[in-house]
Structures are given as structure tokens and as C-alpha cells.
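re: ur question from earlier - yeah i can do the single chain one, its not a big deal. heres the input i used so u can compare w yours
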Amino acid sequence: MRVFRSIPGVKVSVICDKSRERLDHIGELYPEVEKATDLSGIRDDASIDMVAVATPVFSHHAIASECLKAGKHTFVEKPLASSSAQCHELIALAEARSLTLMVGHTFIYTTAVRKIREIVDSGEIGELRYISCRRLNLGLFQKDINAAWDLAPHDISIILFVMGAKPVSVNCQGKAHVSAGIEDITNISLNFSNGGFATIQSSWIDPRKVREITIVGSKKMIVYDDTEPLEKIKIYDKRVEAPPHYDTFGEFQYSYHYGDILTPFVKQVEPLKTECQHFIDCVDRSARPDTGGREGLAVVQILEAATESLMGGGGTIPLRYAS
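and the output i got, formated as C-alpha cells:
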């Protein structure tokens, strides 16, 4: 509400929520905005061009599909839906009606992640070997999804964006300690066809808030710490090298390189505002969003495979990306 109201040319006309308490709170902050507890008024109002959906994951498909059928451009918080089948339906609805469907993978719109991709694409860190993600905190516990579906979409979207490729298989393990059947800690491993590798640790029961991604290349390494207020990215001129050839075991010696640590300047902007502005721009220009329906589908397909692996004891699940 706050961000969309701050964008020039955008009028937020209606806020819809089942909770009367939340609506009363919004009414105190934004008394000029109409309040509703039912989606039908928004659906049938021809003056409303766009809808933003920020609700529990299980409701994304039903709400978004109703809005798309009514001819509304639709922005949906992550993950796009509860299944790849639901994602396919939303994509088909949007494409058939030439509507913009966008998913809220907010970190793709951070200046830090954009800078990381720029560094990786430049070849400065050499061949990208692996990415390690840790997204940990104490809570917030969800009732309808586990820690992987809650936290890992951020990291999966970042990995796909930085690597520019989709994994070919996934493994996942986890445990439910607080609520039966809802894993509060998960570990996901992603394998890529070029030998690349990524791991994602997600937890609701860690004593500290951790938002850290390590990217290891053959020449240099990057650490991205989103909890840092200013120096979010550090580039480490470190690497280990093995000799190209040797005759005896005694001649084999690893070579360790230790160089400088560089902190590139990253302009601080609000990612949510950048993301919402991008949605508006795509609607205005009939352009394809950086995080459109198909990007949302890829993340959900990976989460589905991770769930299958988790239910099967952590075995490897091949990924097949049906278009």
C-alpha cells in the first residue's frame, strides 16, 4: 500500500482483506482508500486496472486467476502458486488476455544482487563453481508451508538470476521440530549441467538472523550479507590452485592465493519500490517482467522437486521443465 501510493500516476483505490481489524488499521493510515472484505467488488470494478496479491500461498492461485479472468494485470507475492500446474494456469490466463503477470521475487530488484550478476558476468571471479545460501532466523512460523517454501524462493530466484541457468536435479532434507509435518529447517542442494552446484539452508529455529550468500569462483569469491546496512558485498581475491601436472605425489602441492578484499559501492534503494515500479512500467509498455510467470514457474518446479526429495528421504530428483 505504502509503496504503490508513492509511485507517480498510480492511484490505490481499494484494499481488500478478510480481517476487519487489519482494515480498520489501514483506515487509520489511509482514510481515503476504500475498504473491502470481498474480492468481487474489485473483480467487477472496470476502473481497476491492476491488482497486487499479498496473501497466504494457498490462496494465490484462486485470487490471481479470478483477477486475470476479470482482465486485471496481476502482481503476486512469492511463490507464484502452490504447484506448477497452478502456475501454468495463471500463465495461460495472462497470455490469452495479453495481461502482465508478475511474481514478487524482490531480491532480483536489489542493487546488490544486480551488482553480483554484473561481477559474475564480467568474468572477474572466473568460472563460477558453487553458491552457498543461508537464510536463518527465529520464526516467523507458517501454518500452510514449510521453511523451504517460505524462505528458499528468495535464494532460488537469486541463484537462477546469477547463474543464468536452471538446475538439472535437486536433493532436499529437513526436520519438523515445532509443528508436526511442517519442516522448520531444510537443506536443498541444486546440481547444474555445467558442473555448477548450489546449497540453500533455510531455518525458522536459528538464534540469529542470517541472510548470507557465498559465491565461489575459480579466481575470486563474493560474500553477500543482506543484514549489513552498507557494505553488503565483499569481493575476496582468494583462490586455491592445483598444479597442472606432476610426476610424483611428493611434487604435488596446492597453491593458495591471498589478495585484497574489495567492497564495491552499491547505491541503497528500496527493492520493493523498484519491483513495484517495474510492474507498473511493464503494464504501461506491455513489456515482459524480469520476474514474470515463467520465472515464478521455474522456482515452484524446483520447490516441488525439493518436496518430493524431502518426502523420499533426500534422494536425487531430476528436474524436467515442462513449458
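The first strand starts at residue 14 and ends at 16. not sure if urs matches, ping me
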